[in-house]
Design goal:
This protein is of the alpha+beta class and 425 residues long. It has helices spanning 78-86, 137-146, 150-153, 165-172, 183-186, 202-217, 230-246, 255-268, 312-328, 401-416, 419-422, and strands at 2-6, 16-22, 29-30, 35-40, 45-49, 54-59, 66-68, 72-77, 220-228, 275-277, 280-282, 289-291, 293-295, 298-300, 303-304, 341-345, 364-368, 372-378, 381-395. It folds into three domains: 2-83, Beta Barrel (OB fold (Dihydrolipoamide Acetyltransferase, E2P)), CATH 2.40.50.100; 142-172, no CATH class; 220-422, Chloramphenicol acetyltransferase-like domain (Chloramphenicol Acetyltransferase), CATH 3.30.559.10. The model is unreliable at 84-97, 109-113 and 117-132 (pLDDT under 50).
Amino acid sequence: MATEILVPTLGESVTTATVARWIKQQGESVSADEALVELETDKVTVEVNAPSAGVLSSIAVPEGAEVEVGAVLGLVDGAGVAAAAKAPVTAKAGPAPPAEPEPRPAANPPAGVNPPPRPLGPVSRPAASEPVHAPLPSAAKMIAENRVSTDDIGTGTGKDGRITKGDVLAFLNRPAPAPAVTPEAKAPRQDEPREQRVKMTRLRRTIARRLKEAQNNAAMLTTFNEVDMSAIMTLRSQYRDAFEKKHKGVRLGFMSVFVRACCVALKEFPAVNAEIDGDDIVYKNFVNMGIAVGGPSGLVVPVIRDADQLGFAGIEAAIADFGKRARDGTLKLEDLAGGTFSITNGGIYGSLMSTPILNAPQSAILGMHKIQERPTVVAGKIEIRPMMYLAVSYDHRIVDGKEAVSFLVRVKEGVEDPRRLLLDL
């Protein structure tokens, strides 16, 4: 009996997906819960598993086609495997055939001709083996599209050395060796294309659409401030090793301090943590903190649930896990849903100042930037301090300028004096 392969529920506000790649081909045997097809949604890549064991008897939707939730992707026929398992053995058991006599060398081989070597036993054939560095399903598509070899990429950063999307991207973006300049190489080749047209991925199209919607629908403004990173850098230097030892390898970074500072400030200014729903303002009595991380296909914002209830170690562990899964392409849809406030750090790419765009329907987002030593007046004296510009973009329909500026000042105070965060001040 054939079982339908259906497009699963894809998460909050996601109703369609694109068939990115069929992992199994028609006619192949499959096991229950084995990955069959890879779907690309607006946010992440989703694998659809086999509903039962059998044979992939039909593929209803080709690669590149768009499908809706609940649509039939293909059929798995369980009778195929059952028939093969029940096939009777018709040959009767009998005595084993006599072994063939070993070939003997000629008694007098011709001059100049060496006799054939005497076989030492049965010839063993090397067993076929799977690739040592097999790519993850999410990376296999990128490898096929760019026509690269897993041998060239080598050992991946995934579990058991498996190749991830991040490994493929790093390989593709590696600096090319400088070629030797020859007289022939000086002249430009006329057959090289001057431009290349590539279809936007579904994730990139969604990013473009959502960012434009945020600009069109919200009354977005940005306010700036700067923060002295001296205290937090001293704190991290003093307690980094002890923190990592106690929390079993969790590293103490700057991001957890900013998350805690934002959580404290959001309690004081709840409009910054609210959203507009029609004619209503929905205030949240919790903080689901979105942390923007870069993946192979673009920027995604996984969410730390109830971040206001977590300590520094819990926040750092969640951020590290999100970063790894974003590089591996293994984030799930539920990881990206339900955020109430977001933080993006352009400083890791060298950005000195920017105006972050709202992550709708949230009403505000904090932008962190590069730490740079600058002359600063401290107690009437000019000192060189590690400084960072901060930016808060907010929806002026719900957040007043005074609230946005005061919120950013509270964040600044918490980062410059982390003791305030421990005392919830």
